[in-house]
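User: I'm preparing a small set of examples for a lab meeting where we compare how different chains pack in three dimensions. I only have the primary sequence for this one, and I'd like the structure in token form so I can line it up with the others. Please keep the answer compact; I'll paste it straight into my notes.
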Amino acid sequence: MCSLDPLTVLLFLITSIFLAIVTHKQKERVHPNYPPGPKPWPIIGNIPNLNLQKPYLSLQELAKKYGPVYSITLGVQKMVVLCGYDVVKEALVNQAEYFSDRPNMPALSDYSRGYGIGFSNGHNWKAMKRFTLSTFREIGVGKRIIEDKINEETNCLVQTFKSYKGEPFDNTMIMNAAFCNIIVSILFGHRFDSNDPKLERLLIIVMDITRLLGTPIYLMYNAYPSLFRWLPGSHKAILKITDELPTILRDMLTKLRSQLDVNDPRTFIDYFLIKQKEEKPDPELYFHDDNLTSLLSDLFFAGIETSATTLTWALLLMMKYPEIQKNVQKEIEKVIGSTEPQMAHRKHMPYTDAIIHEVQRFANVVPTNLPRMTTHDITLKGFFLPKGTPIMPSITSVLRDDKYFKKPDEFYPQHFLDSDGNFVKNEAFLPFSAGKRSCAGEILAKVQLFLVFTKLLQNFTFTSPPGAKLDLSAANGFTLHPQKHEICAISRN
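Assistant: Understood. Below is the structure token output for the 493-residue chain.
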């Protein structure tokens, strides 16, 4: 009779226990008014129902069958999906307080440990968001002082584009570097030189995190954290990389601590360090180093990735639709001329404003948004959602809602223009999400998008390389990037 290897026996026992727990949890009773959804498979739930490369598309398709409020099961975790502007607004805006928590997402929760603003809950989240919004106001976000910082960096971006002398180049890293320097100047009060190895490493970290969060194994890790902690895979790489970013940021903090003048705060970090000194005797409060590094990581990642990707889409779309690009340039010449773009110009530039809005809508950079979690037992559209229910508001379903957008799958600037060419708001325009968990950097992002876009179109006409075919489909990832391509920046000066 053959003997079994002890390690094999141990793995068999662990797997058996794991599967027994999974099976037991899947048999737990649900409320009779819980949202309907596809029948989950044993152990794996509804994972077979999803396109793991582009799950946001699967969520759209399931809504056609089960309605705007439905449930899915990922492994053992039940989740409720909200599709369409009306139901997303009802939840995130009309009942905002009840949809303001974050569920546990192991790959990100392991890194944030409940600190910062993106993945924390309760009093800590409220304290960090309140501080972030008030400090952004103090340092001038939305005012000329921040516009000047953005224009300074955009001028460097213009010079970089000019250095290619109209020849084709990939602008992905260049655009990321520009937005990295904008957020670094706001948070830390300085910018990186283009050849600084620390800048390059920070950009690689941000791009790797975005890529890895969009891989199927990340979804599987969130579905089966207890099992996948034992297994190799890219989820391990996420943990390693997310540990590296706070380490780099902590190193950058050292000099600022030594130079802090409590009577003359100038940067975001200065204001945090002053608050830290004020509450230092009480270790149970919020302004400690763990919250600072997590908060900086959240702002750093959000401040670079989404804005840089949106501008990359904008230039691609201008190449695809040269007549639209010419119309933007005509409006820039009429309103701005050769002067420095300012936010005060925007109200006189309805066409350009509409183009930027439509780029954000069409690009759909964050298609699923970050999930929410109910803070109380609640009823939504007649369905019962118990406290602690993970909620996935589909931003794709909002930005592609044919009830509010005439041509939801096309790039159509008239979504934001009336028949007289005036800019019109559209209530279903929610690229920054909505409610209490809406993006804290929304004002900054709007300023960046307008100033950088108008400056680039003021200085260049963008064309595709000879013979290149422009593909408007999105590459796979947590955020939706354009497919890899090159651009030609033809100087207009």
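A couple of notes for your slides: Confidence is low (pLDDT under 50) at residues 1-13. The first strand starts at residue 69 and ends at 74.

User: Perfect, thanks.
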